[in-house]
Fold these 3 entries.
Entry 1:
Amino acid sequence: MILLFLSSGLFLGWSLGANDAANIFGTAVGSKMLRFKTAAITCGIFVILGAVISGSGAAKTLDNLGSVNAIAGSFMVTMSAAFTVFWMSKLKLPVSTSQAIVGAIIGWNFFAGFTTDYNCLVKIVLTWAACPVLTAVFTVILYSLAKFAAIRSKTHLLRQDFYVRVSLLVVCAAGAYSLGANNIANVMGVFVSVSPFTDINCFDLFTLSGTQQLFFLGALAIAVGVLTYSKKVIQTVGCGLFSLSAGSSLIIILSSAIVMFMFSSEGLNSWLVSAGLPPLPLVPVSSTQAVVGGVIGIGILKGAKGIRYKALGEIAIGWVATPIIAGIISFVALFFLQNVFKLEVSQKSAQVYSKPAQVCCYKPQSDRLSKPGSDPKIQ
């Protein structure tokens, strides 16, 4: 029965693969430097690695926004987010699963009568706003440096083309790893507290925790979504906003990978804390917004004349509408699940909101996402 409930998370993972994951290599495929099949397979492999190895950081933030404490509630929250993303994808709008799951969780909070941590929500929204801006800034800086180096390079054009293609593949893999590490929380984060899996010791070499097994399933669903249903969004992100060269695509993917890694890496935050610097919020951000920010950064460098503002406006509408639609769907669907199918969607006795706002940021090991019996080594 629990595995049946997990199906909604797998559906959301498939929707993420169909929408957000495509953005990692959409610009590379749109510029015809990589074949779709090659990019999709590479993306799928590294999404899985990122989710299993580094997927726990951003899940903590969603847990503090709204800790869904009943398996039926988790099922309907992720189903609502998945349906929203799928519907937006049908309209060819590159939306965000991060925004969809946050909207659906808030819908659960309202239905269950629990308080939403608005300080945490504000930090999430501010991080969403910072994501495309930071990507645009990184894109401008890296593009300028690359252009400076290319002018002074005497490499033959054919060799340059080869280097760019190889670099695109490597950067695409890095971007897919960051996507898996950051966005797996959207897919399986609400199931962590009710995970049916127990830790597995693999020949005394390493331990695969129940949470990592959960993330592995979610990442597999993402990989399937990439392979089966991502071409439509590629056409919007890769070709709809601005005409991209191969070099521009490389810089955009690299910039978006850096930004997503910044908002998901516990290791980076540990280093910042040890160096006396403020930690970054570990928040599931949108790969779509990151890539769009990078595309706009390139457009600004080239005078902003080639930016297709109509496509940009359609994307912005999708960003605003996604959490609202997901929240409404979640609230209505939970009502039917509880009153028609008589399933428990929340446990009233549990205290959901009890942590201060700073839990959105990196915390020491003892305060990380964990449950009794889980593997503390998960990174």
Note: DSSP finds 14 helices and two strands in the chain.
Entry 2:
Amino acid sequence: MCLGIFISLRIFNFPDITADGSYTLGGVITAVGIMAGWPLPLVFSASVLAGMLAGTATGLIHTRLKINSLLSGILVMTALYSVNLNILGRSNLPLALDTENIFSYFTLFSTSTINNFFTLTLIVGVLAIFISWLLKTDFGLSMRAAGNNIKMARSFGINANFIKIIGLAIANGFIAISGFLIVQMQGFADINMGVGIVILGLGAVIIGETVSELAGFKKIFLRVCGVILGSIIFRLVLSFAISAGINPNWMKLLTALIVLLIIGIPSLIPSLSKKIKLE
């Protein structure tokens, strides 16, 4: 998910709220597909394609109808709630215990937790290599140019609107993969599983970029790894808060405060703000 947020927020400077809906969309399609007995590759393809369609819708609304980026994402996210509810058929769908899932493909270790960790590491590694490669291709350079300076990009003959639509489609495809994985890991899909998820991705990206700036990471692959590291750090902080006895009812507030602190501290410390550029 954080890689998808990284593409929309840092490559295109596009605060894409669609993530809340596309994350759930990937999850509900996974749950329905698995319970219907679809082959796992088909479930994966359907989830990613659905997420990409959601991103395409946001991109088209923003570029064709000239609607504000934030509002475009909110409109698609709101529409996706009904879409997800109709696909799911109810508010919550548990997976049967004996269903095949992606974590049952790899049984190299005797402990399921280690197997799950290995599977996640493998998938995230492949996605990180893919996005690093993509951003170095001509298309990826066009994405970065369109995100940095749209007028300059157009002066070089780049169709910035088309590039942005495709980029948002890719970003939401990545986010749908996150929903695909989480549903199989937790064993159920819920209509509200995506509520506030975008702030988690935002926090992970900001932490990752802070780490990258402090460590002097300049290469795109290292920046992508920094975002993944930021996601891990953010989750560890939240896990520590829960283990410290904080009521889970306060988790959304705690998450918002952590992100606020991460964004606000560099502004309060001039020496730090020179090293870290957060916008």
Note: The two ends are 20 Å apart (CA to CA).
Entry 3:
Amino acid sequence: MFVQQLINGLTLGAVYALVALGYTMVYGILELINFAHGEIYMIGAYLGIIYLGFFTAAGLTESHLLLSLGLVFLLSAITCAGYGMTLERIAYRPLRHAHRLSPLISAIGMSIFLQNYVMLTQGSADKVFPHILPTGPLSEGGMAISGIQLFIIVASVVLMGALQFFVRKTRLGKAMRATAQDKTMASLCGIPIDRVIAATFAIGSILAAVAGVMVVMYYGVVHFFIGYVAGIKAFTAAVLGGIGNIPGAMVGGLLLGLVESLGAAYISSEFKDGFAFLILILVLIFRPSGLLGEKVPERA
């Protein structure tokens, strides 16, 4: 049972880590907590259902299932990247030099707006994602892992590794790191600050969209309110690892998923969501810089 809970926790934690990366990347550059990021994740889940429905109606899902799923992920990611860049352009960029509370209030307002936008356009009832993938678990030594769990863990690790490579080795990634360290100096060196910040929002939104599609494939349903709870948990994961630190967000997400899964199994499933808030409180009291907080100066 313990190993099984580890698998469940890693699956959940991988999703939290992907969403947490969006929080930590934006905070690393703007020192802004983008509370609307959870809603981008929720919109990604809805888009997964919408695009899959479109391809099913066109007959592509029946004849080319993997191609359809690949297009669902791709189109959802592109659309959410557009949402993220639009948020940055209309809700945060005009307030970049305002008091710190102003963009924070704007982020909360955009979060509420996006929740209501999805509720009004998609309805308040749950939306169902059809089980189109094999659901039979792969069993070995009393341990069972489903195909979708394996996919979520592997895909998340690949994406997190790709992001780390992108930030460390590419020209845009280096520009992001320079902007995070000193925006004024980076601007004087010719780095287009606005484009770099917009790209940061786009990358974070892409990761959130992928996480949203994977979650709706895993659980099979989505609701317009899931972004709030998932966003708070992902924010907790970012704080746990050291907000502003990319490896910290990955570690924090995985740890949070494991704690939540093991706590639900061995303590009480009724307090499953409460573990995230308990961790957030403990981290803020005893280690506000997070587990990897000492690496914040190298943040992206």
Note: The chain has a mean pLDDT of 88.
